[in-house]
Write a structure and sequence with these properties.
By secondary structure, the chain is α+β, with helices and mostly antiparallel strands. The protein has helices at 28-40, 62-74, 118-126, 155-163, 178-181, 190-201, 212-225, 304-307, 359-362, 382-388, 410-415, and strands spanning 11-16, 53-57, 81-92, 99-101, 116-117, 132-141, 169-173, 209-211, 232-234, 243-246, 259-262, 275-282, 285-290, 316-318, 322-333, 343-347, 350-353, 366-378, 392-394. The chain folds into two domains: 7-250, Rossmann fold (3-Layer(aba) Sandwich), CATH 3.40.50; 259-415, VC0467-like. A hairpin with a 6-residue loop joins strand 3 and strand 4. Helix 1 (28-40) packs parallel to helix 6.
Length: 418
């Protein structure tokens, strides 16, 4: 199972042209952009934040696209993924055979004059420091491609050959028939429609994350069954194994901020009769703390200025067996307050705060605070396995339980045991 890239360190550039002055318009491209942007920003699928997603619909000229590509390519952080997507007409320059991505003013006989040379995309992506890169081209031909398009080489092969970049996974659909690629009255083009379907529905019996190659295989199967030209994939350095989204069919939910209760029959030493607050849950695994195990007085080295902020009982809680030499401070903010510096939200007003914060700056905002030593950790899919086996049970209980005045009784209270 591939590890999904850190969405906060990733960058997405979605480029699409729905309206043309000298070529047939492709209104379905607008639906492509809108729905892909929504899906890639969905925290249950990947969760790339809005500021890391650039959407260029009907860009006026190649320079506008080039600037956006260079900026995004340069901003990918450690552990991030660069995704570049284009939907519109794809043309082959009759003079030199170069691939041109058609922009609104592009003329089919002279595509280089107002089109986006794919070489610009290639250079921007190749120059990125991103370790993982994915380029997706949904190029619908205008019917005026060079003669080689009519030879034994398929349109998708020709586009893929011209668009390949070292150390990048390239997914290409270049159907020759415009109408077949963008069915009249449909919200999406044929290729991107299948891509969106795979993201939305997932793959039954698949892993927790979807690789580019798995996505390509499913799109190819579906398109060929409908009589469309097969899409192509090009990869270097195992680029096809890049995870691009969580598998929706696995029903992976983001449990961050949830209260989990150990089943009555669960006798695990670390979780028996425990209630757990999940601090983080994603494709890389999960982290949580036990909220039912006060462990005695705060140690002498715990900062004195913080003690008056703690919720009763003001003691150190045993959060779990991992990293017992550090502290995790869980805080509930007062309604309507501005989150202080070094506050990391978990759910609603609940979050964690770094001990490097100034306690006097926190006091007006804090409605409750608990300190935990150690935490519980699960690898990819492990927390889901606990839930599927019924060893842990999800609840809709309020996060106010984190600050219960009767923490040792909380498991019995939530279980309904008296």
């Amino acid at each position: 199972m591939g590890e999904l890239a850190d969405p906060r360190a990733s960058q997405v550039v979605l480029i699409g042209v729905a309206g043309y002055r000298h070529l047939d318009s492709l209104p379905a491209v607008a639906g492509n952009l809108e729905d892909l942007d929504t899906l890639l920003g969905d925290v249950d699928l990947w969760g790339v934040p809005p500021e890391n997603r650039a959407v260029l619909r009907d860009p006026p000229d190649a320079r506008t696209v080039g600037v956006a590509l260079r900026q995004s390519a340069s901003m990918v952080g450690d552990g991030g993924l660069l995704v570049v997507y284009y939907a519109g007409h794809g043309l082959i320059d009759p003079q030199d055979g170069a691939l041109i991505l058609a922009l609104p003013d592009c003329e089919p006989d002279v595509p280089h004059e107002a089109g986006l040379p794919y070489e610009w995309v290639r250079r921007a992506v190749a120059a990125s420091t991103a370790r993982r890169r994915v380029v997706i081209l949904d190029c619908c031909y205008a019917g005026r491609a060079s003669p080689e398009m009519a030879t034994a080489t398929t349109g998708t092969d020709a586009v893929a050959d011209r668009a390949e970049i070292d150390e990048t996974c390239l997914l290409v659909s270049a159907p020759r028939n415009r109408t077949a690629a963008a069915p009249v009255g449909q919200r999406h083009t044929a290729f991107t429609g299948e891509l969106i379907r795979v993201f939305t529905d997932g793959l039954i019996d698949g892993a927790a994350t979807l690789s580019v190659e798995e996505v390509w295989r499913e799109i190819r199967r579906a398109l060929m069954a409908r009589g469309y030209e097969r899409p192509e994939i090009r990869e270097r350095n195992s680029g096809g194994s890049i995870a691009i989204a969580r598998n929706a069919a696995v029903r992976l939910r983001n449990l961050t901020g949830s209260i989990l209760v150990a089943a009555r029959s669960f006798t695990d030493e670390d979780l028996r009769q425990s209630v757990v607050l999940v601090l983080r849950h994603d494709a890389t695994g999960a982290v949580g703390v036990r909220i039912t195990t006060p462990d005695g007085p705060l140690p002498d080295d715990f900062p004195l200025a913080w003690r008056r902020l703690l919720h009763d009982p003001a003691v150190l809680f045993d959060g779990g067996p991992v990293a017992r030499d550090g502290y995790i401070v869980v805080t509930m903010l007062r309604p309507g307050t501005v989150p202080p510096l070094r506050f990391t939200p978990v759910r609603d007003r609940l979050g964690t705060v770094a001990l490097s914060s100034l306690p006097q700056s926190l006091e007006p905002a804090v409605d409750g605070m608990r300190v935990f030593s150690g935490y519980l950790g699960w690898g990819p899919g492990e927390l889901e396995a606990y839930l599927d086996a019924g060893m842990l049970v999800t609840t809709s209980h309020s996060t106010r339980h984190v600050f219960s005045g009767r923490p040792r009784d909380l498991w019995h209270i939530l279980q309904g045991v008296r």
